[in-house]
Every structure is written in structure tokens, then in C-alpha cells.
Fold these 2 entries.
Entry 1:
Amino acid sequence: MARLKKFIAAVGLLRESPVGMIGVGLVLFWVVIALIVGVLPLRDPLAQSGGDLLKPALTLAKDGGHYWLGTDDRGRDILSRLFFGSRLVLFWSSLATVIAYSVGMLMGVTAGYRGGWWDEAISFIGNVFLAFPQMVLFIVILSQLGSDSPAGHWLAKMGFSATWVKGTTIVLAVMFATAPQVARIVRGLVLDLKTRDYVAAAEVRGEGALYIMLVELLPNARGPLIVDACLRLGYVTIAIAALGFLGLGLPPPDPDWGKMIADVRGFGALAANAMIWPALAISSLVLGLNLMADGLREIALRD
Amino acid sequence: MSDTEHKLIGTLKQQLAEKTIGRRDFLRFATLLGLGAPAAYEFANRIDGGIAPAAYADDLPKGGIIRIAQRVPKLDNPHTFSWIYDSNCVRQVCGYLTRTGADNITRPDLASSWEVSDDLKTWTFHMNPKATWHKGGAFTAEHAAWNIKHCLDPAVGSSVIGLMKGYMLKDVDTGKLDDKGAKVMTTELWDANAIEVKDPSTLVLHLQEPQVAVPEHFFHYPFLMLDPAENGVFAMGSNGTGSFEMTVLEVGRKCEFKRIADRPGQVDELHFVDLGDNPSAVAAALASKQVDGIFQGNIEQYDIYKGMAHTDIHSIVTAQTAVARMRSDSKPFDNPAVRKAVRLATDCEKTLQIAHKGVGSAAEHHHVAPVHPDYFKLPPMPRDVEGAKKLLADAGFKDGIDIEINCKPDPSWEQAAVEAMAEQWKEAGIRAKINVLPSNKFWEVWETVPFGFTEWTHRPLGFMVLALAYRTGVPWNESAYSNKEFDDLLTKAEGTVDVKARSEILGKLEKIMQEDGPIAQPLWRSVFAAYDKRVKGFNIHPTLYIFGEDLAIEKA
């Protein structure tokens, strides 16, 4: 309970940063939408209407309602797809970031605290992954672990839906590409932290290496890591949208924001309305996360 | 074409005069039976007062280079081509025995004339004495015979087998058993003398069943006449009988052809430029005049091309389509009720509107198009969700079925059609997962996946595509469909020259497809291409074939 209060107090500090508050506002907007979208009076995001293709914003629908943000090339309501899509984007990008962070922190703290051949081996593996451009790495991993791979078939056989199979492979791709970056940051922090007296005290007490890494080191490295996590969540959101745009994202007809742009790009200027809204949604969420990270950094520096 | 007119041409003339067949049907079948195109047009004009096509303009500009945006795939084995792109490349170098024009009329090419016996079982083709190879020597009946035998060799794997199996081949037991213990069958010529070289300029085909469309089959796009000395392999410097020689081939980038000085044609060079799968890149290249024409426009960009002041749009109604095909040897599609339920759950009109912006017409699930002369109009087969549910319940799927459909993202209308249909199927309890595969990956598995969405190009006659895709055991039978009644009716249709009688047989085939067939077919496409106004002589072909020798370009 005390920890929760401490966390709320820390978040409350953000009020002192106007930039951070704008970020929080943008992120909260999408989080709230994702939570309540099921009860909002929206159209079915998958329902198609052959007579309402590529309609502009504020178009009157045949059933008497409105397409507030217009329709896409299959006559689907853009507003509804954006709002339902926010669930997918937030869920998969958060899950991918959390998993990448967990793996990255474990790699980094082990390499930094253990040193020696542990450090050599983990750093070498990380450097191998970091040597590839991120998008190339994503594509290679998705093509090897995608829904058509033996791993994909196995997941499908286990009863996972197409969305889960694809989502899981995206999470794995993000993990391979991001964890080494996180590991490098954590390792640098731990190299400094492990020289502190409280670590020496824990060692004198006879605490095990795992205890020291998880209880003494990682919590004390959290400040910079929280800021980095916010930024990285933004990068992962963009990466997942880019994968959707390239046709490697979640399977159709899920309203993946990147795929929403890709679906209509062939129409060029004729589909400007259908492209601009998902682009704005991606930008607003990523901007929100970046501003929130800036705010957190600002406050951290004040301390 | 011959002094002796086939007796059925008289019947066709009578039917045209009595207006029981149309002008188009008369022209098509009279020319197939050996009546020259000019004579056929003259007779039709006398009856209906129509105007014959303008004579080929001889005052087209000469010289220059035409650049066309089109994919450039591997070209090494022309007899197994399964794309129009690759045939468009080799077509500039090698010819066909016949040529079916944009008006769907089949005319002589490397074969200058032909006759057919009254029973439609003996076809005599006379080779064009003016046809010569680039490397010297005349094109002879031996060369034609080698190419036909090569295409009909099951080891080659040409789709020509699908067209000719019914009248040129017989099934033979190899004496081997497959993994399931079933006999492994192959095919061979039905008679050792089925392809007879009478003399160097005369080829005779002896058919086991009557067949009216032999000249049209010779224009099936993989049926290129290759130099036998090259053993079916095409490469840089390959011999041919066409107007061009290939000078550059970079797969995935470009393919260039130079016209041979004394051969027909206007332009000096013809270049195909591969701009990839992205339709926007193709449109941008035409807009910026980096290319002079495009192989085919993407339906999404119709209005963009219309807005380009320097281009003309050429469009045509076709029998091009794509079908959601179910392998009849895979569960749950081995049950005909499930296949019909998928058809009944499909709203063709709505799918046309959503996926192809209404440009084309709604299909009827039997793969015979209204533009085919042998099309038979069946009563409408409207969407019937309750009927689909009942069929599924009767088949033991009371709670519906979960299936996966495979498709490719290019051209984009295919994925849009699959998404539209999958949405419609939900209502009938058919829950379809959509697996979008990259195009190259899709073409590795298109014949083997249990459920896939496959594009099929235009064929001039309805029964041609049925023979290619649904006859038992033929190479392109991707649905593993096998129905003896269907095969027998198909063979009968292939040997029936009377248009009305044939159309009635087609009606039975169409009904079988609707009731038992392996496809749900949402739409027929109209296609278009865009060319710079400086390009002359282009006449869009329903199969999007490009004939370089017809093209000319004005100086900029």
C-alpha cells in the first residue's frame, strides 16, 4: 500500500511538468477509449457497406446515423475501427514492451553484476542482434516464426486464434530486437550500482546473487528505466504499426492502425481521409508516450 | 482458308440469318472451323449490316522505344508458364500456331490455314510458308509436332494437358502405388499416330473425341512454338519466329527486346520494366513518363489514371476472375453440402461493390462468364443464409465450421474480396480465418492448401476454363475436383459445334458447378490498362496479351 501511494505521488509530480501532462492526457485518452470501447455506441468495426466506400468525415449513413470520420475502401466505419484498434495497439505494444524489458533487464543485470564470461557472452549475443537494422530483424524473425512456420502451425494446433499466433510472433520479434538495447542500458547502470555500499552490505549478509540482482540492483535502477520504457513503448507502437503497414502485422480483418493505412494507400489522394485518421492516431499515442517520458525525465533531473 | 468449307459453316450461316446465334458467335465458330476472318466478316456484314474492322494502318510512326511497366519473372520454361507476364515477354520472340485477337476471333499465325473433318476429329493444319526462324530455316510441321508433344508430356507439367487431355491423351497405369496404396496414373497420347506430320508443311491431329476449339487451344499462352533444338528451355539468344530478339533479361528488374530488321513491326525496341507489386509505383512511373504504358491498372487507381492528361485508358469486359476454391479431398470440403453452403453464404453483388468497386459483374459460382459465347443463363442463385445453415446442419456441422482461407495481397482487390466474403460467411456460421501470404509464397502452395482464393485469367470459351481447372486429374485442377458426369459432359461440349446445343450442355455443367462444384466465385472483372497517347496500335486484349509488333510510338 505504501508503495502504491509512493507511485501515485511520483506520478502526481508530473503535474509540475506541462509537457508531461500533455503526454499523460494523450496516453490516457487512448487507454480510456480502449477500456470503454465495448460500451460506446459505435458501429461494428468489421461491418462492410458496399454503397458507402471511401466516404469523407461527417457523412450521413444510409441507416440514418453518421460516419463521423468517414469510411474506408470497404465501407467500414473509420471511427469504430480506430477505437477498437486502440485495444489491439495498446495491448500488443504493451505486452511486447513488458516482455522485451523483462528479458532485457535480466540479461543486463546478469551481465553487469556477474561480469566475466557472463558479461562477455551476453554482450556478444546482444551485439549480434544489435548489428541488424531493426526492421530487417523484424522481417527475418516474422518470416521464420510467422503463422506459416512450424512454430506458427504449432501455436495454431494448440488452439490459438490467428490473431494470437500473429501477435505472439510479433511480441517475439520485438523481444529479440529490443531486449539487447535494454540489456545494454541496464548493464551500464548496474556496473555503477554494484559498487555501492548497500550491495556490499547485502553480500556481507550472505544474500544470493539472484536476491542482490532483483532486490538491490534493479529497483535502484528504475528511474532511468521508467523513462526509457515510455520511449520504447512509443518505438514499439510505431514498429507494430509499420509491420501492419507492410502486411506483417495482425491478420485481417482486425483493425490494426498500420494496416488501416496500407489498405487504402493504393487509392492515393482519393483516400486521404481514410489514411489521415489512423496516421493521427498512431502519432498522437506515440507523441503522448514521448512527452510523458520527457516529463518524467524533467522531474527526475530536478531531484 | 480452304477450298472445302466445313458443312457446319452452312449451319452457322443459317443460324446467323435466323438470328438464333449472334454475330460474335458466328465469327468465332466460323473462323475456328477454317473460314477466313475476312470472309466471315463479309458474310456477317451482309446479314447484319455491320462494319468490318478497319484494315491495319500502315502509316504508324516508325522507330523508337516503348517502355511498359510489367513484372519480369523467370522465363526459362515457357511451356509451363502460369502467368501472363512471362508469356508477354517470350511472345515477342516466339509465335503461336494461331492467334486469337482482342475481338475473340482466332486467326492464322504460324499455321496459315486449317481444315477439319465433318466429325471434328481430324484437324489438318498447314504451316505458314513465310514463317522462318531467326537463326535461319523454315518453321515446319515437325517443329509444331515437337512442341505439341512436349506440352503433352506429363513430365513437363504444362497446363496444355488440361485443355487437350480429353481428345489427345489417355490415362495409363504406371504400375506404381502411392503412399495410400492407390495406383499412380500418368497420361500418354491416345494413339501413336495422334500427331501426324504428313509433310514438312502439313500437320494432322487425329482426335479421340470431337473438339471444336483446337485452333483456340493453340493460342493458350504457354503454347509457344519453341525451337526443338533448345529442348524447351528459353534464355538469352534463344531462337524464335517473332519480330524481336531478347537483348536484356534481369529477373525482377527488366527485360528488353530489339526488333529484327526485316521482321514486322514499327518500334526499334520494346522494354518491360519491373516496378514490383506496388501499384502506386506503377502509377507514379506512368505519371512521370518513366514508362509509356502499363500491363494492367489496379482497380483502386482507376480515377488516378483517368486524371492523367497524357494517357488513354483502354478497358475491356473479360472473363477474368478469382475463385474461392475448396479442395474436395480435404475436410470439411470433401462434403459437397459444405461447398454449397459456402456458395450460398456469399453475396456476390456486395463483394463486387466492395472489392472491385462495381467494375465488372457479379458471378454465379460456375466459372462460365456472360461474355463466353457458350454461356447458359441459369436462374439466379441468390445469397441464402438460412439455406447455408441448413446444409451445414444436415452435414453434421450444427454449430457451424471453422476454416482458413489463404490469399495473397497482390492485386489488392483479392484480399478485399476475401475479407468481404469472410464477413458474409460469419452469418451462416462459417468462421473463416484469413491467411494472407506473400504472392511468391502463395504460388508455392496455391494447389495444395485446402481453401484458397486463386485468380484465373480470361479464356475465350467457357468450356476451356472448365477443362483446365475442373477436369479430373489435370495439372491445374487445384481443387482436386473429380466428377465423372462433369467430365463426360465437358468432353461432349468440346465436340459440339452447334452453339445452341453446346450452350445447353454448358448449362448442365454450370448447374453441376453450382450444386456440387468446388468453388465460390464472387465476381467477373473488367480490366484496364493505361498508355501514353503517343503510343499507337495498342488494342487491349481480354487476356492482357501484348503484341510488340503491333505497337508504335510518336516522337516526344
Note: The longest strand of chain A covers residues 59-60.
Entry 2:
Amino acid sequence: MSKILDYVDERLSLGELRAFAAKKKVPLHRYSYWYYWGGISLFCFICQVVTGIMLLIYFKPGPEAYDSVRQITYDIHFGWLIRSAHNWSATIFLISVLIHMFSVFFMKAYRRPREFGWWSGILLLLLGLTFGFSGYLLPMDELSYFATKIGLATPEALPVLGKTIANLLRGGLEVSDVTVQRFFALHVVILPLLYLPLLGLHLWLVQKHGNAVPPSEEEKPEQERKSIPFFPNFLAKDLGMWLMTLNAIAIMASLFPPQLGKMGDPLSPAPVGIHPEWYFMSQFATLKVIGKLVPGFLGEAAGMTLFALGLILWVLIPFYDVKTKGGLVAKRATYFGIFVVTVLVLTTILGYVLA
Amino acid sequence: MNYPVWEVPGIGLPWVIGIIAIFHVMISHFAVGGGIYLAVAEAKAIRENRRDWLPILERHSKFFLVLTGVFGAVSGVGIWFAIGLIQPEATSTLIHNFVFGWAIEWVFFIVELSAAAVYYYTWRRIPDKLHMKVGNLYAVASVCTLVIINGILTFMLTPGTTWLKAAGTGHESAYFWNAFFNPTYWPSLILRTLVCLSLAGVWALVSFSRLDDDTFGKAKVSMIRWSAGWLLPAFVLMPFMLGWYLYMVPRENQHLLELGMTTIGSGAFTQITRIALISVISTATIVGIVYFFAYKFPKDLTYGHALSVLFIALAATGSTEYAREAVRKPYVIGSHMYSNGVRISEVDTFNRDGYLTKSMWSPGKDASQVEVGKAMFRGQCLSCHTAGGYRSMRAFLADRDAKAIGNILKVLHDHKLDSPYRYYMPPLVGTQQEIEALQSYLLTLKDAAAPTKVARK
């Protein structure tokens, strides 16, 4: 065994990698558990890749999409489980990414020199949401059909390019099997091609700059700060958390597997109370409320402008909150974060109430 | 239907038993494992002169005193209360066969309780050797409660051919030992013992993770690592024991585990497969979690990590118990009594003379058809279904008209060999008039649910 290890080590210099990993430290403090969420997101992403590849074996994009998902869900041994695990790992992925992002925000981990980590993380979240949106249509049942139809009506409201973008995504004026084909290509080829290099960059930045500590910890003198080696101590805990996450996915996937509704029919009316998935619920509710105040195109444009402004502010926060020491600006940034979390939670709840 | 029948809306009758029973099973397995753990740990500490372990074990033993004396005793009585009201016929059969067994179990339980109290209150007050003897008595008594109750629990799934031949003759209790050492007794006993040992190790992790590093540093590390090892026997042996157990389960019950492999279609009975998956995954991964969290770096084990391990262990135990209970369908006592309390031997009589004729709780002669139907529903359906909650009849009937409901009732009544319901539903017994009355009552449930179909969101 040692001879094999020596053989590999001589050619791949694994020893150097090990020494590097052992040198890297992870801060140990009362908020250390927030550090796990990035790893949990990564694990969920891996689960989605694995289950996604397994679904690819039976899924047929285009006119046969619905039938192939019906076959996966009701005919193939444990096909329902793979589909359910894909679905639930996506949900837990988005939850963990959101928790990861807000923990990074409140730890002020977007400050110098970690700005690119912050921006790449936001891009990964946006791509993750696009993964969710594009994957949602693929079963082509009643629910996914109408949710996508409504979802694509939102960018259509954008001035100038809105209609062109919506038609490009749809492959025509209506959601159809052509749209499924396009969303499939987006879901399994284009998005992964964008996501994987960006993920690589994000992980490299985390390795390069290490874990940020919260301001309360930053104020402590160096000798009072505790840390543990990344390898093997933190990695072992991370792997433990991955197994915990696997259990969470297994429990949810087994207890609440997604069924398949009736086939999406453009001629039938939309089911009562149709609404998007939870991760778009906040925007859905906001648009609905604004639509009631300002009906028509103007309302939709106002809503879209609001989202765009919110996102821009979120992206630009590293330029605003730059000082390492606490102060009024730092406090304002924290208040802004609390405001954003509150608005997201409240509007999401409101969305379910209004639906 | 000779006893009052509860109607519990929402969770239904199965979950009244289920919640109490799963809670009790967890408590009792903790208690049995804890008894063994304390005795072995104290012996090790004294033998290897690890005196720093003893104050930690003293603190640790307090939990088991409370667990056994309060939660174990209360939930145990709770089970009796619940099964007596929800499954009176089955409870009656069990008491008639196993009254002696239960009497012995209670003796052991009283010994366990007393020994646990003496064990806790005599730390540092009596010589080590005597204290260890008390610990051994506590461990043996707690194991004996499992040895006894396991015979009764496994009997319900596999009563064995000898007892089944005697069933209904009035001489069933003469076959006590055949019923007790039934086909699934030994694999189940070993499986449960492994679970007990694992839970003892898991609880030790929870307990020791809270110890102060400065005061207990070295002992804490060694005890966490040693406790993590308590999951190893289960990890190695459980797949084999589970295989043995399933091999001893009748083929028709094994088939229930396969119903959810291919499909999750509505109306298909897939719960057991889905819950069994949780059991398998959580059992298979928990050793890995303990290895990474506790064994490899015991110093870094936090209370949060230990609680996470406990949560997975409880998920594994709870789901396994659910699957074990459900795999007995359509019986409450295998090949003898259906889950609604109707004995196989009574089916023809009920079909000929009527189900409600001998019931003390049947409606009067002047009762309307719907009232008769409701009595049928309460007697034969309520032990598994509810009107609008768990296994909701309203949801099940939503898309069906009177003719379709009549057809399903006919399929259930005929109980033919190729019926898909045969694996998990008892036959519907009664005369044609009674079945038509049930159909009328079910139609009133369906009408009450209007609008029948809630639009999917």
C-alpha cells in the first residue's frame, strides 16, 4: 500500500497538497458552525449532478418529456427516488446557499480582499436559481407548464429586450415542447458550463483568502483567537455534515416525493392558485402587490426595476462597507442585511397567503 | 367490535399508538443500552484504573434513572391505555396468551428501576465491587425486559405454525413457548440489542460533549472515543441480522417492502418501502458521521454535533419501528387477526350472519342505512383510516362516484388472490346490506368534502 502511495506521491506531489491543507487554519469561535454551509451547498450540488446524470438516462426532452418523467416516476425501479432526491437536493441546495450568503454578509466577509468571493457567490446563486427555473419545466406537467408560462411573462415586461429574451427562451410565442428542448439544453449544458468554472474560482478564492471571522472575533488580540487545521480536523467535520445532509435529503425525498400532474395543456385554464416555487415567491408576491397598486405594464416595470436596484445594492455592498473596524457604515450595512432578510421572509409568506 | 371505538380526527388511531409506541421504544432501547453501557464502563474504569471516568459516569447515570423511572414507566402505561382502546381484540388475545410473560417483564422492570435508583444514589458511598454488582444487576434486569417483550412483539408478526394451529381452540396459552420463541424471535432480539448498544453510545456522546474541557479534558477525549466504538457492532452485524430477520418474515409481508420500489402512484401502498429507505440510509451513514465527528477528533466534538448524531439515530430507530409495524399488514397478529380486529376464522360467519349482529355497539334496529354504514366504518376502517386526516377517506373517494365506491368495496369484500389490496387491506366483512350501508355512509363523507377537489397549486 505504501509503495502505491509513494508511486502516486512522486508523480502528483500529494504530500505538498496535504502539507498545504494542514497549514490552512479554520477559525474556531462561537459562530464557527456557519462555516459548514458552503460545504453543504457544494455537497447538494454534487448530489444534483449525480442524480441529474441518472435522470438523463431515461429523460427524453421535447414532445416525449412528459411521458419519460411519468415512466421515471411510476414505472422504473426507484426512478421516483432519484427524481425526488434531485428535487430535494435542489431545494436544500438553494436553502444552504442562501444561508451561506447571509452568514457571509453578516460576518462582513465581503470586505477586502474577499470582494471577488462575494461577487462570484452571488453569480453562483443567480445561476442556481436559473438551474431551478429551467429544471422546473422539464416534467412538462400542468403545474410546471403554467409556472413557466407565468415566470417567462415577467422578463417579457422588461423594456426594449424583454419580448426578445422571452421568445428566445420559449422558442416561440408560447411555452411548448420546443421550450422544453431549450430549457433542457440550458439546464444540462449551458448552465453547467458557466457554473463549474465559476465554482472553481469561488473555491480557489476561499482557499486563497481563508475563512473570514466575524467583527466580534476580529477585535480580539491574535493570541486569544483559536483555530483548527483544515486538514484533517475541519474536513472530517465537513464530511460529517455532508453525511447529515445526505440523511436530510433521503428523509425528505422518501417522505415527500414529487408526483406528476396532468400533462401541460396550453388550451386548458391555469389551475387555481398557481404560484412559483418558494425561491421565487418573494418576487412573485412583490409583483402581485405592486400590480395591485400600479396595474399594467407600469407596475411590472416598476417591480423589475426594484429587483434590479436591490440586486445592484447587494452586489455593491463591498464598496460601501469597507472599513475593518466597526462604525456607523458597518452598522448601516448590517441593518441593510437584516432589512433584506426580513423583506424576503415576509414577502415569501405573503406570497403563500395571496396564492 | 365489543369495546368502545375511539375516533381521533387528524392523526387517526394508528398514530395514537404509533407516537406513544415509537417514543416508548426509543426510551426503552436507551434504557437497556444505558444499563449495559454503565456496567461495562464502570468495570473498565476500575479495571484500568481510570478513576477520572467515575465522576463522569456518575453524572451520566442520572439520565438513565430519570429516563427509566419517569419516561419509560409513563410511556409504557400509555401504550397499554392506547392499545386497549384502539385494538381491544388483539390486546385481549395477547393478554390471554402472554399474561405470564408480562408479569415476568414487570418484575424485571421493577428490579431495573430499583437497581437504577440504588446504582445512582450509592456512587462513592459503597465499595467499588458492590457498586459494580448493583450495576450488573441493573444491566441484566434491563436486558431481561427486552428478552421478554421481544417474544411478544415478534409473535405479532410471526406467531408460528404451532400456535396458529391451536388458535381458536381455547388452548392457545398451552403453546406459550412456541408463540414466544417464534420464527423472528432471535434475529429481532439481536437486532434490538445492537440498536440498544448503538443508542447507548450515541447518548454518551451527547452527554460527554457537554463536559468542560478544562475540568475533564483527558477523560472526556478517551470516553468520547470509547463511546463512539459502541456503534461498531451494529455497523458490522446489522446487515446480516436484518437479512436473517427478513428471511424469517412470511413472503406476503416481504412483498410489502417491494410495493414502493417501482412507483409512488397515488393509491399505491408505498409507505413501507419509503420509510424503510430512511431506516437503511440513516443506519448506514450514522457510523460514518460518528467516525468523523467523534472518533477521529473527539476533542472537537461539540454539543451540536452530538445532537445531530442523536437526531439521525432517532430517525433510524423511529423509521425502523414504523416499517416493522407496517410490514405486519394486513394483520395485527400474523395470519390470525386482521388489523381491524377481525379474525380470519370469523370472516365467513360475519359474511353470512352480518358484522354488526354480534356487536355490542351496533346501531338499533331502527337505525338508518347511513347510521349502519357509519357503524361499519367505525368497526372496520377506523383502525387504519380517518374521515379527513391521516389516510383520509375523503381524499381517497374524491374522484369516485357511487358506482366506483361500490366496486372498490366489492373488491375488498371478495378479497380475491389477485386483488392488489390483499397485501395490506383486510377483507371487508358483512352482509350485502351492511356493505351497501357502508357505501351510503362513504358517499356522505365524500359529499361533506365538497368542493371535492382542491385545485393543485
Note: Residues 117 and 156 of chain A are 31 Å apart (CA to CA).
